């Protein structure tokens, strides 16, 4: 049946009413346009009550599946079908979906919608806990599963028919996303045969999903898109002084959905190719953005143990390799040094990420990184061409505004524990650390007092408390 107008439905994976709606429209021989919200998260704001499906005949909002059935039972659906057959969709009707990522990158060559749909499906599969580690002879296969488990999950959780589930398994094999553990040419089967996810797959990474190796986008274009997106979010939802973040507002902002989609392109950036200042600015911005992304998506850590897990598990895939918050801070920006509670370095000598670590640590990075707590330095967006002056300004601002206090009478110096936790970055001794601090506050009254104490070597350092409360 040909329509001059348009039937559009908003759907999302695992929605049984969505499947029923599509089946009903197909039975009526009605063509429809689908907006899959898992592929177009930036359009969630268009959906009333965030529920799916939502059905439109041109600009007339029908409602969900049950409203559609009620219209059919009362005979009202026939007139609506006749209207959409003869009347073109007006400008007020919901628009058809653009190609995925099109509004961000100008389109991605060689990537089909089906490919992206399958990759998004793999992310959901990983999040549901089905992927595991299975041993075959002497080999342990990580991120593996049985063919029958996949089929059952597709039918039960994704709402597919048995045949569609089998076809989806076959498509995953054809696209090279999964493979039989013993024979990569083995077709997909609904049985006890063991399959595994192929390639660098990190289902816990917040930018998992878009892993196609055919993207023809430069690292500079990706990082520029990220910088613009980050700047826009900060401008709207971070206070002017950089100390407070409105996480709830970010979660519902269309710009955040675009940022999440753009972050998936980090998988195509090779950080080894970045120059020194490019790399530092890149990873500082990524760290601060990943903190916000992690809190918005998974919630803020509430105690010491959950905080440790947060920094070790919240991650992005960058250049095909997984980087947690801890990896970025201690592995990359601190030149692969042990963290304050770690017994080993983040990267071993054989870890491919060790080549990304900076050669020389710039201690000023500690006053640019924001961990999401009230005790952290303010959030700023850093750029390569201004990095040196921005880091100096951030360091001086933090120390002058309370990170360092001096009591000349008692000869006590009160310092932020950040300098204690990363003391090796500031010198070999406490004296070295205080001389370093003096370089940034030397022109102030407290700087003059501190210099006198350092010169006489008569001082006692007192470590300030640290406010781990969420910066909202």
Short description:
This protein is of the alpha+beta class and 472 residues long.
Backbone shape: elongated
Q: Estimate percent helicity.
A: 40-55%
SSE string, helices as H and strands as E:
EHEEEHHHHEEHHEEHHHHHEEHHEEHHHE
Secondary-structure content class:
alpha+beta
Please give the number of β-strands: 13
Whole-angstrom Rg:
27 Å
Described by strand count, sense and barrel closure, the largest sheet is:
4 strands, mixed
Low-pLDDT runs of 5+ residues are: 99-111, 210-216
Instruction: Report mean pLDDT, rounded to a whole number.
Output: 85
- Straight-line N-to-C gap: 54 Å
Strand order of the largest sheet: 2-1-3-4
Question: Beta-sheet strand percentage?
Answer: 5-15%
Describe the structure.
- This protein has 17 helices and 13 strands.
- By secondary structure, the chain is α+β, with helices and mostly antiparallel strands.
- The strands form 4 sheets. Strands 2-1-3-4 form a 4-stranded mixed β-sheet. A 4-stranded antiparallel β-sheet has the order 5-6-8-7.
- Helix 1 links the parallel strand 1 (7-11) and strand 2 (33-36).
- It is elongated and about 95 Å long.
Task: Provide key terms for this protein.
single chain, 4-stranded mixed sheet, 4-stranded antiparallel sheet, 472 residues, alpha+beta
Topology (SSEs and partners):
Elements: E1 7-11, H1 16-27, E2 33-36, E3 54-57, E4 60-63, H2 65-73, H3 76-86, H4 102-105, H5 113-127, E5 132-136, E6 139-146, H6 147-157, H7 162-174, E7 178-180, E8 194-197, H8 219-237, H9 247-251, H10 254-263, H11 276-298, H12 304-313, E9 315-318, E10 321-324, H13 325-333, H14 387-403, E11 404-407, E12 412-415, H15 417-421, H16 430-441, H17 445-456, E13 460-463
Parallel strand pairs: 1-2, 12-13
Antiparallel strand pairs: 1-3, 3-4, 5-6, 6-8, 7-8, 9-10, 11-12
């Amino acid at each position: 049946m040909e329509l001059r107008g348009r039937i559009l439905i908003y759907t999302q994976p695992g929605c049984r009413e969505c499947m029923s709606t599509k089946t009903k429209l197909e039975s009526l021989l009605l063509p429809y346009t689908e907006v899959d919200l898992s592929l177009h998260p930036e359009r969630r704001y268009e959906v009333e009550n965030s529920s799916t499906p939502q059905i439109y005949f041109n600009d007339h909002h029908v409602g969900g599946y049950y409203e559609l059935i009620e219209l059919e039972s009362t005979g009202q659906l026939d007139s609506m079908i006749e209207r959409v057959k003869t009347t073109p969709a007006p400008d007020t009707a919901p628009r058809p979906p653009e190609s995925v990522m099109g509004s961000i990158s100008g389109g991605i060559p060689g990537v089909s919608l089906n490919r992206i749909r399958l990759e998004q499906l793999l992310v959901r599969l990983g999040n549901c806990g089905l992927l595991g580690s299975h041993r075959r002879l002497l080999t342990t296969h990580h991120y593996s599963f049985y063919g029958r488990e996949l089929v059952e999950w597709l039918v039960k959780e994704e709402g597919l028919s048995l045949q569609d589930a089998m076809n989806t398994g076959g498509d995953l094999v054809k696209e090279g996303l999964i493979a039989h553990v013993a024979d990569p040419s083995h077709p997909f089967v609904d049985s006890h045969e063991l399959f595994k996810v192929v390639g660098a797959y990190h289902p816990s990474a917040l930018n998992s999903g878009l892993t196609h190796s055919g993207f023809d986008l430069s690292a500079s274009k990706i990082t520029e898109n990220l910088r613009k997106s980050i700047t826009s979010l900060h401008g709207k939802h971070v206070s002017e002084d950089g100390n407070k973040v409105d996480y709830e507002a970010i979660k519902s902002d269309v710009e955040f959905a675009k940022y999440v989609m753009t972050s998936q392109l980090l998988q195509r950036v090779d950080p080894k190719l970045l120059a020194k200042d490019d790399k530092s600015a890149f990873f500082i911005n990524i760290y601060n953005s990943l903190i916000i992304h992690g809190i918005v998506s998974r919630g803020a850590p509430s105690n010491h143990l959950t905080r440790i897990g947060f920094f070790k598990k919240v991650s992005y895939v960058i250049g095909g390799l997984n980087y947690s918050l801890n990896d970025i801070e201690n592995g990359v920006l601190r030149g692969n040094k042990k963290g304050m509670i770690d017994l080993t370095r983040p990267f071993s000598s054989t870890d491919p990420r060790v080549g990304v670590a900076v050669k020389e640590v710039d201690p000023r990075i500690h006053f640019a990184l924001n961990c999401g707590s009230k005790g952290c330095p303010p959030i700023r967006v850093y750029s390569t061409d201004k990095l040196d002056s921005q880091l100096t300004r951030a360091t001086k601002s933090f120390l002058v505004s309370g990170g360092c206090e001096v009591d000349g009478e008692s000869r006590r110096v009160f310092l932020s524990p950040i300098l204690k936790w990363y003391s090796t970055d500031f010198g070999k001794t406490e004296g070295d650390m205080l001389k370093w601090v003096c370089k940034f506050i030397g022109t102030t009254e407290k700087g003059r007092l501190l210099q006198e104490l350092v010169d006489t070597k008569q001082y006692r350092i007192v470590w300030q408390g640290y406010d781990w409360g969420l910066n909202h």
